[in-house]
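Chapter review: from sequence to fold.
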Amino acid sequence: MNKIPKPELIKIAVAGHTNTGKTTMIQTLMKQEIGEIDDRANVTKDVKRATYEYEGLQALFIDTPGFQEANTLFYMQQGLMKLNSVLEKKLEYEMKAWEAIKSSDVILYVVSLETVPDGSHQAEIELVVSAKKGVVALFNKGISKFQVTTESDVVAERTTRIEQWKEVLCNAGLSKNFIFEFDAHWYDPDRVEEIYSAIKECLPNDKSSLFGKSLLAFQQHQQNKVKTACHLIFQCLDKCRQTITVQTSEFDYNQEKSREEVVLQMSQLLNDAITDFINNASELYYEVAVPSNVDNAVIKNPQPNTRRKTNIRELLIYTGSTTGGLAALGTTLGVAIGAFASAILTGGGVGILLGAQVGSVIGTCLGGVWGVVENAQTDISAQLSREELGKIQCTCVMVIWALSQHGFGVGKEVDESLMARRYEIVQEVCSATNFDWLSADEKNIIDQCTNNLSELNKIPLTQIANT
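The token string follows.
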């Protein structure tokens, strides 16, 4: 049987000075963990190749050792110096990087905005350009570096540093159209598409056409991912807006048992809907972050296991059906959901904030906002209000937004204050329209969530990070 030929992979060499975040950059672009990340210089000592055939894009990323003596290698390439045993040892990393660059189709040159460009960088860039390959420059560590200073200082210092690097790069022959800010601690879907489009323009015609086809598939996949994410939000809201009805018994004179059963079923409904959403959203955006044994991950956590009804039932028995007790139930469910989120999402901050927000919603709802409605003394019904559904929608949108922009910077923890800032922004965006989540159909809910995410993605990352 004849095998179907495998499409040719576009070879992308990722080069730059030592400790600029090249490996992290590849991980963020690929959304996969490859190589070793550390703040030490020359952690990547050998050329490493990582095939990227995810989301329709066909590429081979080549992680190269960082330059330290590029000026010496450049002089040698210009015939101004001759290679000897001493230089050969001194230029070990440079030679490995240079060979990888020469074998590539295009070069991603990674710059750290933590560093002011000097003469060594000038020689380094000229060396890369001398390979006569297309070069796309990425400015890394721009957000992570400057988010600790005041807003006015951020604007001034960032602008100065960026202009310094642009001048050096353009003087070496790079086009401004091929220079991008892209912090590897973040994943900006729109910026990623711009980077890949620039790579396509840098390639020779035949390979540009090949890469262009896979780029279209990648773009379509990105659009489908947003649609899927919004559908997950709809599914969660659709479950949460169900009416819970419990028939009363003639022996339940004060209807206390029936009320407790309504509360139990409503709390379990919200719990299951939200934990299912967290699980599915995490799988959609960050598959490697989701343990194959999600239930075990929750069971091992010292917080209550959200998958067991007995926890909720025991809590009801302990607290009774008073308003204070029901609010406590919401808080405990929120803690459990937060623990579940921390176990499967990319950072503890997401789980902590999510648990707090959801716990507040559940506690408020079970405390009486949504009400327990008696119907001719034959049954008791309960349903969330449109306002409480709106809070859950905000939380779900916040999770999708955070996951879609999560990068692979050193450490995976998402800062809790940063997530709180995200939630504030999401609230402003999502509450701008008086949308009726209680009665809206699937299409309208998905369209509304799509519009919310589109508006959120227009917000500069620096505005989110610098709080």
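Two observations follow directly from the output. The beta strands are 10-16, 48-52, 59-63, 106-112, 134-140, 179-181, 244-247, 373-375, 379-382. The longest strand covers residues 10-16.
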